Amino acid sequence: MQSNEKQRPKVGVGVIIVNNDKVLLGKRKNAHGNGTWAFPGGHLEFGETWEACALRETEEEVGVKISNPLFVVATNDIFTGEDEGKHYVTIYLRAEYLGGEPEIKEPEKWETWEWFDWDALPKPLFLPIEHLLASGYRL
């Protein structure tokens, strides 16, 4: 990846939705990290709080209701490779599941949504989640 003073990392928000000791993950498609499993989330918009981003992205992508999104950790994620060349700071918030059936509201970006035990996460994981786990974060 070439250095460019005008390039800046982007800010992503990942939402760890907890439901009876399970977490919600989606399988990504048509984007960086294609074929990997990731939490709901997306880009932080200008002037938006992390919590508002978590609520908005969860509704836009999955259609479930969450409550009490709280900051847990941030990761520094540099995607290398010929198709990547992206740098993100990912802010993770943990939220409680309130209700609603997960649905694929953005079929161009997501293949499926499923609940997983924290100790039995699917593979391959999205790079930011690998960094989250490497940080020592646990439910």
The description of the largest β-sheet is: 7 strands, mixed
Q: Please tell me what the overall shape is.
A: globular
Report the order of strands and helices.
EEEEHEEEH
Q: Architecture, according to CATH?
A: Alpha-Beta Complex
> How many distinct beta strands?
7
* Quaternary structure classification: single chain
- Assigned CATH superfamily: Nucleoside Triphosphate Pyrophosphohydrolase
Mean pLDDT: 93
Helix-residue proportion: 10-25%
- Terminal Cα span: 34 Å
User: What's the level 1 CATH class?
Assistant: Alpha Beta
List unreliable stretches of 5+ residues.
none
Q: How many domains in all?
A: 1
* Rg calc: 14 Å
- Percentage beta strand: 35-45%
Q: Number of helical runs?
A: 2
* CATH-defined topology: Nucleoside Triphosphate Pyrophosphohydrolase
Structural class: mainly beta
Q: Can you walk through the features of this model?
A:
There is one protein chain. The chain has 139 residues and is mainly beta. The chain has one domain (10-134): Alpha-Beta Complex (Nucleoside Triphosphate Pyrophosphohydrolase), CATH 3.90.79. The chain contains two helices and seven strands, in the order ββββαβββα. The protein has helices at 50-61, 127-134; strands spanning 10-19, 22-28, 37-38, 41-43, 65-79, 86-99, 110-117. Strands 1, 2, 3, 4, 5, 6 and 7 form a seven-stranded mixed beta sheet that branches. β5 and β6 (86-99) form a beta hairpin.
